[in-house]
Amino acid sequence: xxxxxxxxxxxxxxxxxxxxxxxxxxxxxxxxxxxxxxxxxxxxxxxxxxxxxxxxxxxxxxxxxxxxxxxxxxxxxxxxxxxxxxxxxxxxxxxxxxxxxxxxxxxxxxxxxxxxxxxxxxxxxxxxxxxxxxxxxxxxxxxxxxxxxxxxxxxxxxxxxxxxxxxxxxxxxxxxxxxxxxxxxxxxxxxxxxxxxxxxxxxxxxxxxxxxxxxxxxxxxxxxxxxxxxxxxxxxxxxxxxxxxxxxxxxxxxxxxxxxxxxxxxx
Length: 267
Fold this sequence. Notes:
With 267 residues, the chain is α/β, with parallel strands linked by helices.
């Protein structure tokens, strides 16, 4: 498949729902924003740069959400303008670490990866989930990664460790909030066809002194291949998010859904 798929949308399924999508201006996050907006959701998101064409959230905070100040600013804007949220989708994440294995990762790089991939969700949940629990309803989705089970040692050890922590945190949160009416699930994508994935390929190629095709193949080899023969499209991840956030998934709680084209080779 060379073009992104198109899906039928349940019209107005999320009408009036207040939704925070972190990382909502690029890649899978942007696809999630478009998907939920098309079904009537009121969207809040934030990023360091302005949203691209086609992304028009009701609330946009230009801030670094991986910092405590940025997360606090995002939460304050939502509470002031929306009064809270009904759905949170934590899609913010990624890795900026260089190649070179564990020895190339400084304390600063480790802290950056933990802030981006774990602590953003922790801080925003801490600020917004109590309101959900108080109303007795809500959905929180944490986008983790299959790298929590298949870490790539060359460049993404810190990312994989942070995502493993996110999955564990998500499970613990589900046990606490489930009895209060808030569903909590996680999603573990494999390789997604995004600009961030392309940037990782470029970094690995530069570090190894090879071209992008060789670097891309190295990633495929490290993952053990993708049986369906391609990465996922952001729109496919967004469709899974839409299902799990909807009332169609009302009894799905404390679970993690893998969307990786069959990359993980075990049950």
